[in-house]
Amino acid sequence: MTLVFENGIDGTDRLILKNLQSDGRLSMSDLAKAVGMSAPSVKDRVRRLEDRGVIRKFTIDIDMKALGYELEAIVRIKPRPGSLHLVERMILDEARFTNCDKVTGDDCFIVRLALKSVQELDSLLDPFHEKAETNTSIVKSSPIRNRTPVSQ
To answer: Which of 9, 29, 61 is the last residue of a domain?
Structure first.
């Protein structure tokens, strides 16, 4: 008997997702071997996961250090009254912000910033200081990155 979870995902689907998350370039035959099914059955399951919107896209993981970005900073940004939309536009216009979340709480945005050196922080963040308060932390390591809560 196959255990189906509340969201319609069963253990095999979870195993497929876990394997694809580790390597999105797996061939259907390799994925089938990993989950103990035939390639056509796995291909059908992957297609259904795509149709349901569980799998939205297959993408690549780029090593920022290989591109020369040695550091990453997490910046909390709290716009001054009346500046929310201006600050959001500034974030969207600066390509070095690699992620941005609008959040609840004291800050409105939490962003990740790619840096070649710590000296770049001032030139990248100074334009924000008239319109927002910022609080910056340098990332030392990321023990978990982009993990989906999919277990077996």
So the answer is: 61
* Residues ≥6 apart with Cβ < 8 Å to 75: 110, 111, 112, 113, 125, 134, 135, 136, 137
DSSP class of residue 119 equals T
**Residue ranges of the alpha helices (H) in 37-119?**
39-51, 84-93
Residue with tokens 């000296």: 119
Print the domain residue range for 90.
Answer: 64-138
| Residue 17 CB contacts under 8 Å (≥ 6 apart), including other chains | 9, 49, 54, 55, 148, 150
CB burial class (10 A; 0-12, 13-18, 19+) of residue 51? exposed
Q: How confident is the model at residue 146 (pLDDT cuts 50, 70, 90)?
A: confident
User: Is 133 domain-assigned?
Assistant: yes
21, pLDDT greater than 90: no
Strand partners, 112: 74, 99
- Confirm whether pTM is higher than 0.90: no
* 89 touches 128 (CB < 8 A): no
